[in-house]
Amino acid sequence: MIHLFWLFVGLVLLTVGGEALVRGALAAARRLGVSPLLAGLVIVGFGTSAPELVVSLQAALSGSPAIAVGNVVGSNIANILLILGISAVIMPLVTHIQSLRRDGLTMLFATLLFMGLASFGGLGRLEGILMLAALAAYLVWAYRTEREDTSSPEAQLHKAESEEIEVVPMSIPMTLLATVGGLAMLIVGANRFLLGAVGLGEQLGVPEAIIGLTVVAVGTSLPELAVSIIAAIRKHADVAVGNIVGSNIFNILCILGISSVITPLPLEGRLLTIDQFVMLGAAVLLLLFLFFGLRLSRLKGAILLGAYVTYIAAMFGLQG
Fold it and tell me: For this UniProt entry, which segments traverse the membrane (predicted)?
């Protein structure tokens, strides 16, 4: 029961802290005159991945690299199969391929880059630097091209992502409280969440990689779930899908990049032989839906959900 208690406490702190951090950062950006385009591209994309970043960093530093990597791989799988599946079942998502083509292909490139670098036994400091350099190149490229043509579909999408979060702190003290308090809750929440997750896995005899791929991954993906469901209900399909695509890019290039620069992340076992290929398959499946269907119907959402349930069932079935 104590493991479940810390798991719940950590989950609440991660969810509330991530939400507060994003809103505080957006309020600060608007007060400083940062363009909605840059705010949507960086703050919203990075902010919704903040729980994954803090949890993966703490897991890596505490000697649980399987949870650190499993968290990112599992989050990317859950973002596409689970979260977009739920969003499409609630409200069919009609997307515009022009606004998602570049970021969708970048997500696929990031996935392939991770798999290529990790194929040599894991991610070290050099691999981390390469991933961070790729992230910086993507951000510079995206911002420059969108700034030159603010009416482009990509620019309108990232602007809409920042405007999707309407309620932000209005005063300077509340902005500071939301930002600093959100960060503090993320750090404490990650510590408690990992304590509960690792303890529960040890008690049940479940490997750390599976804990990272399931409990930790789904828990840290709650901010993406909230943003995508709200956007789907408002019929802002491009924002719902763009939020997931952007989060997956940040998860791989930023979180694994920072984590592996700080401490090496070995990749072995099922993460190397199974799960990274499931992540690649989910990314390809999403791109096929977008490029050829342009609409995530309820049926396609049900297919994504069914694929996720099958993946989880097979995982625990093989584990016994």
Answer: 77-97, 104-123, 129-146, 167-190, 210-233, 245-265, 277-294, 301-318
Phi first, then psi, for residue 93 (nearest 5°) are -105, 110
At 111, is the pLDDT very low, low, confident or very high (cuts 50, 70, 90)?
Answer: very high
Task: Express as a percent the part of the chain with pLDDT over 90.
Answer: 22
pLDDT tens-digit series, residues 64-91:
888 889 999 999 999 999 998 998 898 8
C-alpha span between 89 and 232 (Å, rounded): 10
Residue recorded with tokens 């997931």: 244
Q: What's the Cα-to-Cα distance from 76 to each of 41, 71, 107, 150, 204, rounded to whole Å?
A: 18, 9, 10, 29, 25
Q: Looking at the DSSP assignment, which residues form a beta bridge with residue 296?
A: 93
| Alpha-carbon span 275 to 12, nearest angstrom | 27
How far apart CA 139 and CA 137 sit, in angstroms, is 6
DSSP for 92-111, please give it. -EE--HHHHHHHHHHHHHHH
Question: What is the average per-residue pLDDT within 261-283?
Answer: 90
**Which residue matches tokens 């490229």?**
141
Q: Give the angle subtended at the CA of 222 by the CAs of 81 and 204, to the nearest 5°.
A: 80
Q: Which residues, 6 or more positions from 2, have their beta carbon under 8 angstroms from its beta carbon?
A: 196, 199
Measure the CA–CA gap between 311 and 278, rounded to whole angstroms: 8
Q: pLDDT tens digits for 1-56? A: 787 888 888 888 877 877 777 777 777 777 766 666 666 666 776 777 778 888 88
Structural element, H or E, at residue 266: strand 265-266
With vertex at residue 236, the alpha carbon angle to CA 142 and CA 293, rounded to the nearest 5 degrees, is: 80
Q: Which helix (H) or strand (E) holds 295?
A: strand 295-296
Global confidence as pTM: 0.87
Amino acid at 124: G
